[in-house]
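As a warm-up, study this chain.
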Amino acid sequence: MNKLNSAVLFTLFFLTSALSWSQTNWQNEAHQVELPVYDGTTHLGDIKASVMGDKIQWLDKDSFLSTMRPHLKADTFKQLEKLPSQISPSTLPLPLSYNPSELRLNLTLEMSDRSSGEVNLMENFQHRYEAEALDPAPFAGAINYRLEQNWANQSLEADYFGGQFNSFLNMNTLVLESQTYYQSNQDQQWFRSDTRLIKDFERQQVRIQAGDIYPQIQGFMSPRPLGGVSVARNFSLNPYRLPYPTGAQNFTLNSRSMVKYFVNGSLIRSEYLMAGNYTAKDIPLNNGLNTIIIEATDDLGQKKIFIFRSSSSINLLNRGESRFDLSHGVPFLDQNFKREYRDADGKFTTGFFQYGFSSIFSASVYGQNQKDFSIFGSEVIQATPIGNFSAGYASSMEPENKGDAQSLSYQLIGQGSQWLMSQTLGLRYEHRSEEFKTTILDRSSVVQNNYAATYTLPLARLLTASIGGNYGDVRDNDLNDRYGFDSTLNLRFYENNNISLFVGRSRDENRNWSDVAYLFLTIAFPGSNDFVSTFYDQQQKATKVTYIKDNQNRLYHPKAVVQAENNPGFQSGEVDLQVPTPYGDFGGRINGAHMIAGDQALVRGNVRVNSAFVFAYDEGEMGAGISRPINNSFILFKPEERLKDQKISLRSTSPFPESESGIFKELTFNNLMAYQY
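Now compare it with the structure written out below.
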């Protein structure tokens, strides 16, 4: 027994001596390790360090910087970049401590040193749904048709049948669009309207068109419909992307809080956030000066409110965004139920390029050419805390003439929940030299300088007044200067009821006066979708009363429009009725009038159907159906065999069913945007 005890004591003595030697060796020698660094309970990352005993000898600069970069403000991080490659804790400008028992670094960051966490107010639906979205069918299309049978008494034109056909065919992302009209009482009964071939490059947001096109314009450019080709940036190819400026604001929370975001008095989002610095990004802005309120309420009920003002314009682009349009073709004109391509006028080339240098400054250049005539120009726009400023310059050139034009504009649009913050002011000045023209067919402008101003001020929460005026400095001294003014008074009463009074007067260079005055009244009935509007034109001595019974696009529920009009020359009345169904919209209209001259009674009317035939082919399956008209894009549901005997209805964002089983047992959603998930 004594031998056993002696052996145990010897073993314990040996282990104790070894452990003592190991601890002494650890305390006396430096070891390079990776230590986790914590800010409170938050793990920031791992840092390489040299440790001797319970002290840090130095920190590795590269690993320290890479770990701390996301958590520090830029100015604080720049101070760390000046430190040596092996950082002594005593020289570190941050409160760092070492816990040897837990082998970890503790770092308590001050608010002034912390970087801002990003809070995106606009949900990224593209990121959320892109992987789940179905690809478009490689072969699909629709034929929208509006068929009408019209009749009238003998005092009017003969009875006739009319049709309007809007069709498109998608052939593996190559789309053919066509519009055609038919009217039986015309010499040329069929009329081909717009026809074009379209290819979209979705990721680049570029659309190429060939056929009948309508180029976009800027500044002093003139819009001309063309038969030709165009290449343009089209932001609608990605409806979830934000190419226009959004707001961004910084704020600090000292404790956990419920945060609410308001833009111009409307609640955009609410969420709980921990203490820290934050940057609210992608704040949706309206045109003008926006009021942004961030309201933070902590767990004790104490509120902290941040108020910001941010200016934006619908003509601005985000930083780095660009927009362009380049088109070439022959101008066309529709007349007498016929489209005429005017080759004799010469080929027409038009284009512009706009670029966003920042979220508050954008600039564009543009040009147009037809035969020997050309126009070139530029536009710039700057958003500031006191309003939006824009300036433009254009030069027109012909072999024997050259002219130029300049413009300056100022726009102040107040946005806010308080009525006084909603005032607006618009100012514009234009100068055109005598030789300046915007098209090859233009004549010299009579007015050399034009000044215009508008101002709107809410006089009370429900009353708004606006005034406007313009003055034209005429170039010819034998003529008189142009000028005019107008004013509008708008009164809202009993929630959705509205009355507007407009008065205007203007004089041309020949001293001819033109007076305009009208009154518009709208009454909405509470608890229903019925509206009554009244319009009175003082110059024409005309009165029109309209009653609308809306159906909120609800299937099988009629929409009715009743009108009565009184003029010095005639009195008339009209009733229009339309009923939406899953197979189309069915309706009719009847109109009666009494002509004062000749004491004639005129009656006309029609019955109509507005519908579409849709089809799609994908992976060996073919589907087709009859639906309401397709405005843009559609989804065609083909039920399985076991469901074909059942009647199915579906709805998406509407409170009512938007589709029901059709003739071929299919279901069609007809109200989607292009490229919408």
